[in-house]
Design goal:
Length: 441
């Protein structure tokens, strides 16, 4: 039975792979493009009604209610449509995991605790079929991050229309990922359900002491790495120390995966001690220390707003309200979707939920575009529809944050009009022909 199950899983995977071989990346932009008569959501809170956008050589060269199109430009009439900056999926395993249930398709973690020199971009599979399911939701860029251990390695930002990882790379090694130890006790059951005792009957270790020892070990690693990188010509090469050099000149960020107040407080102290550019990932309890995060200029990536609160005393809708509380406190934050089932597709709708709980629509849009771009270190290139930035743009017939009306008709990455086709759209078109029906949606 086990062999049959594995064979079936592998067959399903191969069928998915082979079903989309004809979807190729778009060629480089060959002529200027002008998008006219659009409602433009800039991404920085500004909305331009009946506006136009000019794109030349992959860059936005003009935005406004009155622009002069260049000679020979292709015109796209967006009358009655909404134009948005391409959405950004932060902290994902996109391209590192194909099928969650098939271990051979997962390349997201390494063994060991201190894997500073691991680079997720090297393992990124630009032909991952999940990618094609994200673009029709308006998601054009993603941060691919390693997992596992204490220091997992470095993440990179990729654009989602590429032949290989070299083409996909948008910003490589933008930060390192540290998994904050838990300060909460974990039950250890021995033989016969030992009530929290180990197999030999010993009492469980002190979780706070264990966590603090691990943190002290990481701090010692940082001190050694800082000393190593302060030497012009070290006698011996240490790849792990060299991999974290960017933390000390702040060219790289430290993404600390932390949920509880205790974890976040320890992270803040670490940021102060080593003068780190830090981002909290997860941040379920970040609303309780929002003022402290603001004072220390620490950003937050809210991993999964569609979830239950982590503490029994919290309001049941606390995860939905957290974004609005961070906004009120002035904390820079991004909204994410790290659900293992949706694989990022619900990113705009998670932001839409935050609108129902206190954010404005433009604030929610910024949380998945410009805010996310700034947090990932690419805010100078993307995240908003502004002159000089890459033309990462999506056009929708309805509100991109609303699951009912989100309908992306065109999308551009660096001025290239990309395909919105996927395995799902192929099946949709196939059975429309079989049944002889027109579009159902």
């Amino acid at each position: 039975m086990k062999k049959i199950f594995l064979s079936f899983s592998a067959l399903c995977f191969l069928m998915t792979v082979r079903s989309q071989e004809t979807i190729a990346p778009a060629p480089k932009q060959s002529q200027p493009i002008v998008i006219t008569n659009a409602t433009i959501h800039v991404g920085n809170g500004q909305v331009i009604n009946n506006g136009s956008i000019v794109v030349v050589n992959g860059k936005i060269t003009a935005v406004g209610a009155s622009v002069t199109p260049p000679a020979g430009a292709k015109t796209i009439d967006a009358q009655g449509k909404q134009v948005y900056p391409g959405l950004i999926l932060a902290n994902s395993n996109l391209g590192l995991v194909d099928v969650n249930s098939v271990r051979a398709t997962s390349d997201v973690r390494e063994i060991g605790d201190m894997n500073a020199s691991i680079r997720s971009i090297i393992a990124y599979n630009a032909e991952n079929k999940v990618i094609n399911t994200l673009r029709p939701s308006g998601i054009l860029l993603a941060q691919v991050a390693p997992e596992g251990g204490m220091l997992s390695g470095s993440s990179s930002v990729v654009q989602l229309d590429a032949w290989n990882w070299e083409d996909a790379a948008y910003k490589t090694d933008n930060g390192l990922h540290f998994n904050m130890p838990s300060f909460l006790p974990r039950p250890r059951f021995g033989f016969g359900g030992g009530g929290g005792r180990g197999a030999g009957g010993e009492a469980p270790a002190d979780p706070v002491k264990e966590a603090l020892e691990k943190i002290d070990g990481f701090k010692a690693f940082l001190r050694e790495a800082k000393a190593y990188n302060g030497v012009k010509k070290p006698e011996e090469t240490n790849l792990k120390y060299e991999a974290v050099k960017g933390l000390f000149d702040r060219s790289q960020k430290l993404f600390v995966h932390a949920s509880t107040v205790k974890q976040i407080l320890v992270a803040v102290d670490m940021a102060k001690e080593f003068n780190l550019d830090m981002v909290i990932v997860g941040g379920e309890d970040s609303w309780q220390v929002a003022d402290l995060l603001k004072q220390n200029n620490i950003s937050v990536i809210l991993s999964q707003p569609h979830s239950l609160p982590i503490l029994p005393d919290d309001d049941v809708d606390q995860p939905y309200k957290t974004a609005a509380l961070l906004q009120k406190a002035g904390v820079n934050f991004a909204i994410n979707d790290d659900d293992g089932q949706t694989r990022g597709r619900n990113l705009p709708f998670n932001a839409g939920t935050a609108v129902a709980y206190g954010l404005t629509k433009e604030q929610a849009l910024a949380a998945i575009s410009l805010n996310a771009a700034k947090i990932l270190g690419v805010g100078d290139k993307t995240g908003s529809i502004e002159v000089g930035k890459d033309a990462n743009i999506v056009i929708s017939t309805g509100d991109i944050l609303d699951m009912r009306t989100n309908n992306i008709t065109q999308a551009f990455i660096q001025g290239r009009e990309i395909s919105l086709e996927s395995h799902q759209t192929q099946l949709y078109d196939k059975y429309k022909k079989k049944l002889g029906v027109k579009d159902a949606f």
